[in-house]
Amino acid sequence: MVVIVLALMTSIVTPLFRATMIRLRTEQGITEFLTAVQYAQERAVSDGREFRIYIDARANRYWIERFVEVDDDGERVYEPFEQFGMRQLPEEISFRRVSAKTHRESRAQYITCYPSGACDHASITIDRAHGRSMTIDTRGRIASFRVRDRER
């Protein structure tokens, strides 16, 4: 009898636990991305140089690079910001649409954050579980972005 009760309780609790874990990973992934955008903005101001947050929507990943120099051809050179590293969105969410500048070679989109505290205007839509999506619009000022949560 005890075994039957335990089996019944497990069959009820397991799906709830799984759904909670998925929701937590989803929210954590979105929060980490928003934090990365804000971090790039803050570092641009504190370091007095441009920082970029790159978004590779096909691979569901993002990273930060910082301005190094202007090369002999007049091109701006950026390098990966090692303290941040490459980040991957959790499998439960994905970049659906990114409206931002596109890097010529890598084809990744990016948002440039300037030492003045300004940043490029951009719009990033992230698909979430259960037919929901979230759109993040950067507004051009430090820590100024709008987040819209909606049904797809």
Task: Explain how this protein is built.
With about 150 residues, this protein is of the alpha+beta class. The protein has one helix and ten strands; from the N terminus they run αββββββββββ. The strands form two sheets. Strands 1, 2, 3, 4, 6 and 7 form a six-stranded antiparallel sheet that branches. Strands 5-8-9-10 form a four-stranded antiparallel sheet, with no helix packed on it.
Radius of gyration over all CA atoms, rounded:
20 Å
Q: What proportion of the residues form beta strands (DSSP E)?
A: 35-45%
Major sheet size, sense and barrel closure:
6 strands, antiparallel
Mean pLDDT: 86
Order of helices and strands: HEEEEEEEEEE
Low-pLDDT segments: none
- Which structural class should the secondary elements be placed in? alpha+beta
Contiguous helical run count: 1
Shape: elongated
User: Care to count the β-strands?
Assistant: 10
| Share of residues in helices | 25-40%
Determine the oligomeric state from the structure.
single chain
Q: What is the CA-CA span between the terminal residues?
A: 46 Å
